[in-house]
Amino acid sequence: MLEVKETAREGEEKQYNFNFNVVFYWVGAALSLSLLTGAIGWSYQLIVRDINQIPIVRAQLGPLRVAPDDPGGLTAANQGLSVTQLAVNERPLVR
């Protein structure tokens, strides 16, 4: 608690000298408890947030791939060049 030193003689008015070290101890203890309480509350919020916000992935009801109605596609320009045949390890056609 707060220490009080009495420095009064008989018949004189009592003077109180407060020891400020004790005040600093209590202020430090209050700050420590508030930091500890804040850290516990913050960690609790992290745990609750991580549990409640887990994304749930569900499969689609239909098929993932669907074949096109007209599988012909488009013919691209510059097909059949020797560069593309070399990449596939084929000999280019001699024209």
Q: What are the SSEs and their pairings?
A:
Elements: E1 4-6, E2 16-18, H1 20-52, H2 82-87
Q: Which class of secondary structure composition applies to the elements?
A: mainly alpha
Quick one: how many beta strands? 2
Strand line-up in the sheet with most strands:
1-2
What kind of assembly state do the chains in view correspond to?
A: single chain
Low confidence ranges:
none
Determine the strand fraction and express it as a percent band.
Answer: 5-15%
Biggest sheet descriptor: 2 strands, antiparallel
Cα(first) to Cα(last) distance is 104 Å
For the residues shown, what is the average pLDDT? 77
Cα-based radius of gyration, to the nearest Å: 41 Å
Helix content: 40-55%
Dominant shape: elongated
The helix count comes to 2
Q: Helices and strands, in N-to-C order?
A: EEHH
Word description of this protein:
This protein has a domain of 55 residues. The relative contact order is 0.06. The chain is built from 2 helices and 2 strands; from the N terminus they run E-E-H-H. The N and C termini lie far apart (104 Å). The model has no long low-confidence stretch (mean pLDDT 77). By secondary structure, the chain is mostly helical.
